[in-house]
Amino acid sequence: MGETTANTAQEKAPKKSWFKGLKSEFKKIVWPDKETLVKESTAVIVITIILGLVIALVDMVVEYGVNLII
User: How far apart are CA 4 and CA 8, in angstroms?
Assistant: First the structure.
């Protein structure tokens, strides 16, 4: 019951290979161009504002309903 199948020394990779792997992963990143960044940022901001307004509206309706009941 208390036995483990993996050796903890084998699970840890040497730091040099970890940093090499990290460096190779960073080379794979494709950064967006300025136009794409502006479009996506605008979309996020607009959706956030719309969602905030919807949540505020639902909150007002629920508050009105609770006050009506009380």
Answer: 9
pTM over 0.85: no
Let me know: does 41 contact 33? Beta carbons within 8 Å.
no
- How far apart, in whole angstroms, are the C-alpha atoms of residue 39 and residue 44? 9
Q: What is the rounded CA–CA span in Å between residue 67 and residue 60?
A: 10
Residues 6+ apart with CB under 8 A from 32: 40
Average pLDDT over the chain reads 87
* 10-residue averages of pLDDT along the chain (70 residues): 55 74 91 96 98 98 95
Are 61 and 69 in contact by the 8 Å Cβ rule? The answer is no
